[in-house]
Structures are given as C-alpha cells and as structure tokens.
TrEMBL record, chains A, B:
This is Glucose-6-phosphate isomerase. The gene is pgi. The active site is at 351 (proton donor), 382, 498. Belongs to the GPI family. The lineage of its organism: Bacteria, Pseudomonadati, Spirochaetota, Spirochaetia, Spirochaetales. It comes from Entomospira culicis. Its EC number is 5.3.1.9.
Length: 522, 522
C-alpha cells in the first residue's frame, strides 16, 4: 500500500531532526573517500565524503527513504501510474530511453513502442539528411539545423549539444532560437544560409507564444530574402504532440511526436532533444546517450541508498535544505563543455520542486527546492567562489569532473598539462571548502571550512556519461519530490504571467499594469 | 570626521528593525510607479514601485545612509583614499571613465592622466589595426581578436561585447579563452585563422595560472601549425600592470597598462575591457560606454537617496537581506544581448561583498552579500520562474528592460511585434510577482504575490546605456559594502584554493587531498 504523507508527518524526519549534526571537516578522510562512493550509471561515480555524513545519519536517511516509499513510487511511476497529480498525467520520460518496468498501455497503445517508433522515425530522417537523400527545397544539402523552442525545448537540448560538440564530429551545426526578444531570432537567421538550413519547431502544446512568434519570424525573414523556388515550410520540421494545432498543419516537411506524459524539462531524451542531437551528431551518438541514461535509471531502482547515487544525492540535499537550512546549491562542472548544464539543472530542479503545496494541492510548511546556480570551474573560482568560501551563508556544492579532456589537445606548462591543472584545482577547491584553513591572526585570510561538497566524476564526458549525468539529476529531483510529497511534474507557477501578458497585449490588464507597460514601451 | 562602524552598531539599523514592514502588494500603485522612479545615469531609469517601500522606510533608509556616511566614503574613494584596506590600495576604477573628484596623485603621478594616456594608446592602436597600418606578422589584415583572461579579465568584457555586438558594426570579431580546461583554448584556437588573429593577454599580476597556461597553449598550438614566417608573439598584446613579469617581456607586439588600484571585477572600463572593445567596435563606441558610466557615477554622488538610484538600490537590497532575511537576488534582463550580464554581476557582487569580516578584518554577525543569479527573460519564465512565483523562499527580483530592440528587425504576429510581446511579458511578470492572484479553491494555482521586484529601463541598450548600467551596479555594490562596513575591493577567499592547487601539482598536499586528486586523475 502506497502512502503519501508530508515530510513533517514522517517519523523519519523527526528522527533526523534529533540527530547530532556531524562535522563536515572530520568526515573528509581517505577512508570516506573510498567508502562514500557510489556508481551512478555508465562510468559515473558519486562521492559524498565531503558532505559530513556519518553512520547514524545514513541510517536515518535510509529510514526516511523507506518510510516515504520513494523506490515504490519510482516503480509506480515507471509502471505508468498517474504521478503528475495536478494535471492527471503519467510521467514517462524514463520510457524514452529504456523500459525499466513493465509495459505501459494507454488507450490500448503501448507507449514504449510509441516512443521507440518516433525515435526510429527521427533516426531515419537524420540519416537521410546526412546522406543527402533529403535536401533543401532548392536542391542544396542541409548543413545547419536550428532548434526553435523555449524552456525545456531549449535548455536541455542546448546544454547536451554543447557538451558533445567537442568530442563527436558534427554532421550538422546546430543553433538555437528561444527568446521572444526579436534580436535572438534576427541574429541567428542572419547567420544562416537558409537554403541549407533546417528549422526544428518544438512545442508540445503547439501554442507556446514565443515559439509561434519565432516560427512566424523565420517565415517572414525567409520571405524577405526572395530566394528563387525556396519553400520555407519545407525547411521546417515539428516536434509536438499529436493533438496540437501544429500537428494538424501538414505544410511542414515532417512532424515527430511526443505526448503529455513527457514534461518539458524531462524531455531531452525524447524527440525534443533527439531530433536535433541525431541531426547534429548522428543517431548512434544519441543512442549512446540513451544507454547512459537508462543505466542511471536502473541504478536508481536500488532500495539500499548506499547503492543508489541519485537517491543518496537527493537525501543529502534534503538534509542540507531541511535540517541544516541552506537555501541554495551551486553546480560546479570542471568542464567548459558543460557551460550550460547548470542552466538546464536550474530549470530541472527549480521548476520541478519550487512548490509550496503538496501533490494534493495542500499547503506545506517546510522548505522545498533550493535556488540552483553555477558556472564552470575554474572560471567560477575567479568569480563568485569568494562568497562560497567566506560569505555569511553556507552554500552546498556539487562538483563534476573528468579525468580526460574531450579534444585531446593539451600541452605541458611548468610541469603539468592544462587538464591536470584543471583537476588539481577541482581537488584543491573541494579540500579548501571542506577543510578550510584557520588564520586567527588575520581573519580576512581565515577559511572556516565546513562547506559541504560532493563530486560526480568519470573518465571522460562521452555521450554515454552525459546520458547518465542527465538522468542522475532527473532522478535526484524526482526523489526529492517524493520525499517532500510534491508533484514535481507540473508548473502552475508559470501560468499567471502568461495570462497577464495576453491581457496586456489585448489592452485588458488593469490600469496599474498597463501603466507599467506604458513606461517600458516609452 | 569619517566613522567606520558595523551595521549592527548603527542607530539607523536599530530603527529600521523596529519599523513595520510595508506590504509589497499595496504599494504597487500607479502613483508609486510615477513617484518611485530615479534617473540612474545616461537614459537609464530605476523604478522601485514593486519593492514595497513607504515613506517611513525611505526616511529610515536615508538616515542609515547618512549615518554610515556612504556619500562621504564615495567621495573619499574618488579622492584617492586607500579604501581597499586589506591590500592597502586606492580604488580608482571611476577614474578610468572620468574624474568625479579632484586629482589623484600617487608617487607624483597623476593617475587620471595615466589611465587617459593608456586609453589613448589603445585607441590609437585599435585604429591602426582597423586601417591596416598594423598587420599580422605575415602581412595579413587582422580580422579576429581573442581575449585570454579569467574572472574580471573575462566576464565583464565578454558580457559587454555580447551586449553591443548586435547594435554596432563589428570591426573585428572577438572571442574569449578563459578556462584552464584545455578544450576551451583548443576549440577557440582551432576556429581562428592565426595569421589574421590578435591575442590579448590580460592579467594584472602577470601570474594568473590559467592565463599563463593559456598563453603557452596559444604559442604551442601556433608553433604546431608551422606557418611560414609567422611570429606568434607579434600576434599578442598584453594588458598588465607595469610591475608584472609580463610587462618585462618585450617580445609582445605592445603592452597596455593598468595598476593595482583597478580591481579585476571593476576593470571593464580600463584597458582590461577597453582594448578588446575598442578593437571590436572602434574607440568611439568605447568612449560612449565610458560617458554613460561617468554619468551614472555622477548621479551616484547625490546625498538624497530619492535622487541616487545606485544608493536606493543598495539600501533596498540591504533591507531585503538584513530585515526581510532573503538570501538570494535574481537579475532578469529582458534582452538576449545581456545573456552574460548576470554572470558578470554575479562576480561583481558575490566577490565584492561575500565576506564575513569587516574592513578591519573583524568578524561581523549579520548577513552580507546575497547569492546572485539570473538568465534573460522570457527564457527564464519557462525555467526557474516557477520557484520564484510559488517556491517556499522569497527571492527579490531585479528586472532590466528596453523599449526598442537592437537589430531593428521585427515582425507583427497576432497583432503585436516580438519586442512588444517581450515587454508585455516583462510588465506581466513584475505584476504577477508583486500582486499575485488568489485561488483559494485550488492552492496549486494560487500566487501569494508579495515578491518584490524593481526595474531598470531605458529606450535602447546602447553603449552609453550599457555604461550606465554597468556603473550603476558597481556603485550599488560599493554602497552596500560601505553600509555593511566591508572592504568590497579584495578577495582573500580565492587564495586558499590557489595554494592547495599548487601543493597538489608539486605533490606536496596532504594524503587525503592527494587521494582525492588521484580519484579524479583516474
């Protein structure tokens, strides 16, 4: 029997609150670096020796996970239960990479087969574009693909594209238009040879204001160029749901489908990310990414938290949020290729768990999702790390690192390569945050330490590793939602702004709001 | 007589704590939208009608500003007083754009003249590159400039370059290498025609590990290409201090100088930003940026907070941090061109005021600099805004908007242009955050409101406006430092990591740290 109860109704949380808080400094030992380490899927490892976790805490976290039945809830989700309670929808992004549980049927359709079928369709399509079987409307080979989408249709696919473009030979260059700011579309379109460009229009509902405005922008800009025999719609494919207005428009080259059971921020492994990544790198690279994600999903089914990296990460995050009271978490990848990965995680986490009501829409009285931010190291070291080291608030840290670089171009300088310097800095920062350094004679140079830091690491940022990294965080966020008793799969908080924007555009908003708009319009 | 006292020693802070906290919702009126508006320099306006500020609070904030003598301290800083107490240095970034106060002499040198002289030198240099009087070492015209620097030598100049590249015809394309991750340099160098590329090496100390490694990387990669008659050092200019090891190396094409009185994160208007921006856009555009910054600096000298946007912004930030207890602040520019401006402000603010000791290195017991993060709107609306609207923590918001776009390419769709949609969204979001919308029958759709939001806006993001925007935030951060009694101009918190990284590289760190490094190295 599955129970849904708020965090503050659990015995586990009461017990957790009564435990002594272990020292972060004291638990950062060679022994814990060995033992507090969990395989996270593919070749990714999660190490939490810098988080100050002792045996009593581990037992309490395990008890809380058991009491909140997080693995049972994950299994239910995999089996097709309606876990998006607000919108009364299944949550099936795991099925886009592999079937972890039984078959999921909906109106007699096997949804795993549906996702696989779409994946096969866009793989074939990408292959045909690569071989030149599919050409632009004026007979030229496609060299550039532009994803037009916003939020989940942009941040995840963009972060993944940037993460892979050093390691894999690009078959096509990918670009992205997201913002309704006209400068975003104008600059990207201006940089493209339209006869050799394919646009991917991504909107599940087919009604996203920004994406429809940008579709129109592309069509108008193309028309203005007056290219002989150019048919703009034949340079556009759609990724949308079968019931959307876009799906009914057969003037596009082709449409690929998702459904309401794939939330935007969880959609990178569906056609939302798959079409652009398959076009950019080939479907074999996308397949590797899916394999990595599926492996992380499988690891996340362990009931033993010592074998479940995503769940351990989730529980430590809860401990830091609800017991230690820390309001933010920094994501610090030591890889320039992950430059936009923190922005994707910011959406994934803050949009999923930035909620004040539980899954039954009842008000809760404990803190939920933290503020997520981050930039790649070592860049951040020369920026906001000052506050992380010596600020008045403690901010828990999540480091990500790799043994090898992607480009395999490196040089020795003063006895070490750049990659070795990068990893020396990563290890140094974790140590500095955790251990600190006492300087009583000059407090300006004093480092209190005790800043908790975890590390996700792998030999190299490959497609497989990236898939596991992506799924690790998706599953972490899902587990935290179960622990907090939230619905992590809707986003009602984005609705009011949309309504008001439309009221302003139709001149129906109240006088104060119209006045503010008037100031802006000048 | 100037007094330096901690915030919690002031009468003003005690009085502030005793005031009733006004409702944010109730104060968001048409009248306040008119009256709670301050010119911020150039054509920039700061509006705080969404911040919930009433007359009693305004008086208390003015009293606190007066008691902490923030304007007197700003004047002292301008006059060349040693305001960077930890490092015993003057703080003279204002002098790079215009002399707001009297002459500043140091060892009989007039420092305003020194900065002006450097500015003239790099203006002339940029003009010669543009006219072709200066060519690459193999006789080809320079088309690309690559800034090699990290932290303050990267984030500000990069954000400003991106902010201006739509509006001004680029004379040269600019690129940036910052991270010690070898993939960062490898990808950028690979994308350059080295015979037509000029590298700008930026390090004040001339000892920055990442920048020296990347210099070496450029030289090695260039040597590998074996270009006939190519002299790598003749494709490199330096921006450094006159006493640095780099300045002693005359193998470079030319060196431009800054000094210890210009902190990295405040250096965008010095040669650190000036060389790359003058090369990219021409010195007239950089001059306009300086004019805008100087105008904001002049506005910041008003003692009356109702006429001093930067000081008002600083005081409201303090009120939100120390009275309301909010730990983060989001920066939300509704302009894709400002995509990296939040990353610059993240450094500016968090590195300046992320401190736990006062200017005399004594421990303080109140909160200082908040966590700063942000992404452009409308993108963020489809991402982390869910938490901003309905999360359990309140996060104060700073919006930035412009009436006109930069590219002047726009289309009507469903009755409005993209730019109008952008501004309708901006006005809608401020209203939604501040006013909320009650939905007692379904709390999942309930918006509590009361999320405080301010707005900086201007007709267009020009170089002049951008200069004012940059200086507004520099001055805001400086004023908060004075209010908190901090030294906002050093960054001791970045030192320990550097020391430990070097210990690791020379195999001298302790066993636990070396073990962690070993895990990473694989």
């Amino acid at each position: 029997m599955i129970r849904y109860q708020n965090l503050d109704q659990t015995k586990g949380f009461s017990q957790l609150k009564e435990l002594a808080i272990p020292s972060v400094v004291e638990h950062f030992t060679k022994e814990n670096l060995e033992s507090q380490s969990i395989r996270a899927g593919a070749d990714l490892t999660f190490n939490y020796a810098g988080k100050g976790i002792n045996q009593a805490l581990l037992s309490a976290l395990q008890a809380l996970a058991d009491e909140q039945q997080v693995i049972d809830k994950y299994e239910l989700l995999l089996s097709g239960e309606m876990m998006n309670t607000g919108e009364k929808r299944k949550v099936l992004h795991h099925l886009t990479r592999a079937q972890q549980a039984g078959e999921v049927l909906f109106h007699n359709e096997n949804l795993r087969h549906f996702y696989q079928q779409q994946q096969k369709r866009f793989s074939d399509f990408a292959n045909k574009v690569h071989t030149g079987e599919i050409l632009g409307s004026t007979g030229k080979k496609i060299t550039t693909v532009v994803q037009v989408g916003i939020g989940g249709s942009d941040l995840g696919p963009r972060a993944l594209y940037l993460a892979l473009q050093n390691l894999y030979l690009s078959k096509l260059e990918a670009k992205f238009i997201s913002n309704v700011d006209p400068d975003d579309a104008a600059i990207i379109i201006d940089s493209c040879d339209l006869e050799r460009t394919l646009f991917i229009l991504v909107s599940k509902s087919g009604t996203t204001q920004e994406t429809l405005a940008n579709r129109n922008f592309v069509l108008e800009a193309a028309a203005k160029q007056q290219i002989l025999n150019f048919i703009p719609n034949k340079h556009m494919v759609c990724v949308t749901s079968q019931t959307s207005p876009l799906a009914k428009d057969d003037s596009y080259l082709v449409s690929f489908f998702i459904d309401d059971f794939i939330g935007g921020r969880y959609s990178s492994t569906s056609a939302v990310g798959g079409v652009v990544l398959s076009l950019a790198f080939g479907s074999d690279v996308f397949d590797e990414l899916l394999e990595g994600a599926a492996d992380a999903d499988a690891h996340a089914r362990h009931r033993d938290i010592a074998q479940n990296a995503a769940l351990m990460d989730a529980l430590i995050g809860l401990y830091e949020r609800n017991i230690k009271g820390y309001p933010s978490t920094a994501i610090l990848p030591y890889s320039q290729a992950l430059s936009r990965f923190p922005a994707h995680l910011q959406q994934l986490d803050m949009e999923s768990n930035g909620k004040s009501v539980n899954r039954d829409a009842q008000l809760i009285s404990y803190s939920t999702g933290p503020t997520i931010f981050g930039e790649p190291g070592t860049n951040g070291q020369h920026s906001f790390y000052q506050l992380l080291h010596q600020g008045t608030d403690i901010i828990p840290l999540q480091f990500i690192g790799f043994s090898r670089s992607q480009c395999a171009v490196d040089y020795d300088f003063e006895g070490s390569t750049s990659q070795t310097k990068l990893n020396a800095n990563l290890a140094a920062q974790i140590s500095a945050f955790v251990l600190g350094k006492s300087e009583p004679s000059n407090l300006n140079k004093n480092f209190a330490g005790g800043r908790p830091a975890s590390l996700l690491y792998a030999p190299q940022l490959s497609a497989r590793t990236l898939g596991a990294l992506l799924a690790h965080y998706e599953n972490k966020v899902m587990f935290q939602g179960f622990l907090w008793n939230l619905n992590s799969f809707d986003q009602e908080g984005v609705q009011l702004g949309k309504v008001l924007a439309n009221e302003i555009l139709s001149n129906k908003a109240d006088a104060t709001i119209m006045h503010l708009f008037g100031l802006l319009e000048g």
